């Protein structure tokens, strides 16, 4: 269905509206940079180090919305490529086998969009990494156990209340994550509460949550001059607050 929409709708860039769609070279350039570490401020308890590629705004926001909400399937490749670079940073050099667990979309979101788009992008990123010889495995280990509200427009405290206790391990998925090294994935990190809650549930299932990977991060505060360049490249640096602030 998503691919069919691309055939019947005008191929305009989801980032800027240019006729050279679904993503023009200028807008796609915003997804082509290296992955770096980020963290929300304030940072929720239990949040693992988070790798990301781009700030959520401008063309990146348009590209993500185009794929997620408007079914522009032609954006799957560049978005999956960006997430793959983020995953590589999150798993670290020389890592062994890693289980990639997507943060699940709500049932309402899946019905509206026709798919769990985070799972789709994660699957593409994992295929790309496996083709390069990396030992990564996608496991849909998490599910919603109660309804959650749309987080858009919610404040920080409301976002926490919205997700706490909303997730559980899928039936049969426990043995696939117990004792395994896990990297969480999501398309976007804002407050970090969804990633923190996902990590809490997986740790309770005896998984080791190494880090999280996203495509974009909501920017809330700019870097101090010179700090970002010094701090990119390690979870320890991320924990000191260097990298893209979100």
Overall description:
This protein has 246 residues and is an alpha/beta fold. It has a single domain (13-220), classed as 3-Layer(aba) Sandwich (Rossmann fold). It contains eleven helices and ten strands. The strands form two sheets. Strands 1, 2, 3, 4, 5, 8, 9 and 10 form an eight-stranded mixed β-sheet that branches. Strands 6-7 form a two-stranded antiparallel sheet. Helix 4 crosses helix 6. The longest helix has 16 residues, at 76-91. It is globular and about 50 Å long.
What attributes characterize this protein structure?
246 residues; alpha/beta; Rossmann fold; eight-stranded mixed sheet; two-stranded antiparallel sheet; 11 helices; globular; disordered C terminus
Short synopsis of the structure:
The chain is an alpha/beta fold. The protein has helices spanning 2-8, 25-28, 58-70, 76-91, 107-113, 117-131, 156-163, 174-177, 193-204, 227-231, 235-239, and strands at 36-39, 50-52, 54-55, 98-102, 136-138, 142-144, 167-169, 181-189, 208-217, 244-245. The chain has a single domain (13-220), classed as Rossmann fold (3-Layer(aba) Sandwich), CATH 3.40.50.
What's the SSE blueprint?
Elements: H1 2-8, H2 25-28, E1 36-39, E2 50-52, E3 54-55, H3 58-70, H4 76-91, E4 98-102, H5 107-113, H6 117-131, E5 136-138, E6 142-144, H7 156-163, E7 167-169, H8 174-177, E8 181-189, H9 193-204, E9 208-217, H10 227-231, H11 235-239, E10 244-245
Parallel strand pairs: 1-10, 2-9, 3-9, 4-5, 4-8, 8-9
Antiparallel strand pairs: 1-2, 6-7
Helix pairs in contact: 4-6
């Amino acid at each position: 269905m998503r691919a069919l929409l691309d055939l019947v709708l005008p191929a305009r860039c989801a980032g800027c509206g240019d006729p050279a769609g679904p993503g023009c070279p200028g807008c796609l350039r915003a997804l082509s940079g290296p992955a770096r570490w980020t963290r929300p401020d304030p940072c929720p308890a239990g949040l693992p180090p988070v790798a990301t590629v781009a700030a959520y705004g401008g063309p990146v926001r348009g590209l993500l919305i185009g794929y997620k909400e408007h079914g522009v399937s032609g954006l799957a490749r560049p978005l999956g490529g960006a997430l793959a670079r983020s995953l590589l940073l999150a798993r670290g050099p020389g890592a062994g086998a890693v289980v990639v667990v997507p943060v699940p979309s709500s049932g309402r979101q899946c019905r509206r969009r026709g798919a769990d788009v985070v799972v789709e992008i994660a699957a593409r990123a994992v295929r790309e990494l496996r083709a390069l010889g990396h030992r990564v495995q996608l496991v849909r280990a998490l599910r919603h156990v109660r309804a959650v509200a749309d987080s858009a427009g919610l404040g920080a405290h409301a976002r926490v209340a919205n997700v706490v206790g909303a997730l559980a391990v899928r039936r049969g998925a426990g043995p696939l994550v117990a004792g395994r090294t896990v990297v969480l994935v999501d398309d976007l990190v804002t407050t970090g509460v969804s990633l923190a809650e996902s990590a809490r549930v997986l740790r309770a299932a005896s998984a080791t949550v190494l880090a999280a990977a996203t495509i974009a991060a909501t920017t809330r505060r700019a870097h101090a001059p010179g700090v970002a360049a010094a701090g990119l490249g390690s979870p320890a640096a991320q924990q000191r607050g260097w990298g893209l602030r979100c």
